[in-house]
Structure formats: C-alpha cells, structure tokens
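Following the same procedure, sequence and fold were stored together, as reproduced here:

>
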Amino acid sequence: MNDQTAGSVEKAAILLMSIGEQHAADILKFLKPKEVQNIGTAMAKLDTINKEQVKSVLDGFLDNAQEETGLTMGTDRYMRSLLTKALGPEKANSVIERILMGGNTKGLDTLKWMEPRAVADIIRFEHPQVQAIVLTYLDSDQAGAVMMLMDEKQRLDVILRISRLESIQPSALEELNNIIENQVNVGNTTQTTSMGGTKTAANIINAIDSSMEAELLEQLTKEDEDLSAQIQDLMFVFDNLSALDDRAAQALLREVSSDELIIALKGADEAVKDKFFDNMSKRAAELLKDDLEAKGPVRLSEVETAQKAILMVARRMSEAGEISLGGEGGDQMV
C-alpha cells in the first residue's frame, strides 16, 4: 500500500469513527472484505485524534461528527463493536484477531480475503470435492465470482458436489486447511460441520453472471433434473421482489440508487414495477415512470447487472435481519 493509499485509508477510518457506530457499520456492509480489513487496521493504529484532523476529514460535516463521535471511547472497543455490527460476530472475530494480534489469517479463512482470481488459481488443480468445499466456505458472491473463472465442465461438477454436500468431518476440514496453509489450528471438536447443500448452491448460482447461470442450470437439469428443480426453487431472482411486503420494499428503496433502479426495472415484470411504484410517494412514482420512458432501450447485460446489484443489497439486508425475502422456495421466508 503506497503512502497516498495509506493516507486515504486513515482518513476513511477517522470518518467512520466520527459518524457513530451504527452509521459506520451500515457503510462497512457495502465494502469488500479487504477494504474492511484495511480500515480496521488503520483504526487500531490511531492512538489519539485531534480536532484539526477531524476537521480536515469531515470538513463541512463537523457538527454532525461532534454529535455522534465515537472518538471518546477506546479505539479497540469501538472497532470491535463496529465490525461486529457490520459483519456479524463470526466474521468480525476473524478480522479483529488479525488486526489486533498482528497475525495472518490461516487456512480457509485466508481465502475469504483474497480476490476471486487468486482463489481460483489456488484451487485450480485441486480435486473437485476440495473445490466444492472451498466454494461452500466462501461468501456466495465471492464463490460465484470464483466459479465464473472455471470452465463449463468444472462448474457443473462443482455445483453438483456443493448441492449434495451436507457436512464435513473435522479431520477432513483440518486436512483441507493444511492444503491451503501448512499449519493451522482447527480445534478439537468431534462434531461434523454443516456445509453446502442445495441452498448454498442456489446462493452461489444467484451470484454468477446471468448467461452463465442459464447455461449451468440447463446442464444441471440434464445431469439431475430433481436436484436442479430443488435448486431453482430456492433461487431468488429479481421478479421475486414483487413478493416483498411493503415495509421491506420501502426499506430496499432507501438503499438503492434511482439510476440503478431505473435500469433494473427496464427488464422487470410489471408486478415488480408495481411493487416499487406502490411504495413510493405519488410524485416519486410518477417521476420514476417518466424516467423509465425517457431512458430508451438498454442492453440486456446492463439490466441484468443492475438487477444483480439490487438483489445483492436485498440479500444483505435479509441476512442482517432488516427485511424478509418472500418467494424463495415457495412460501419459505429467509
């Protein structure tokens, strides 16, 4: 990291520590794991922060920063609370341990903080079952990005293995950790670890490129029609957003940009459009309809990209317990 980048990260750390834990946590949810780690590291290194530093970072937002500042509490305590709210306790503990102890992440955890291309290179020549377990261990969006770098035959084999995977023995998990890292402590538990399954496969397929998604599902149906049907029942697509309750739709609208929504709705079912229109003010709905008409033709790839982005926000909000997504697996709620 060069000096300019390091300075920018430090400024971001000061900004987040100045706007209150909840607001900062909400922002961190939209950052990549590596970005969260860099900012957390910068927070841990900040011993004291004077007012001039805050002024230079916040500029015109100083008044708001002084009302909700987190700088009066210990940086370690603040960082722990902030990262836990943003990432959840399990992932936050992994990040905090690296930041405060100065150690490097080991084993499978290392892969969560790497670019998809690097992960793909590491597992490229491993057995498909190892690849399946690794992808199951990653977040769905990262696993989807890794899978997009695999060839067609490999993708089908791996998604089948993920779908049929239910658990993994501690000894096998330890062996896999040793493949990724020579030395790792995985504990002495004698219980199996639940991993994979059709839901995990559905989440990963949801995260990959739409053209690849259709191709993979077609191959999957040819290979195992029943399994393919189970996975597709669990997949949540953009048109499923019509099943959101009004509170959830309104919450989602607050989190997506109008420009992205316009593009996403260009290829959406009328029921989805109506769901969003009905949860806006009359004036806002009219403006959105006018913008949709004025937008003109949009490439299908752009529509799909915008829809995927909004779906990622919806899933993130669902995982945080902020909304419930209806439509996955029939009457199932997640």
Observations:
- The two ends are 39 Å apart (CA to CA).
- Confidence is low (pLDDT under 50) at residues 60-73, 182-191, 327-334.
- The longest helix spans residues 300-319.
- The beta strands are 167-168, 193-194, 326-327, 330-333.
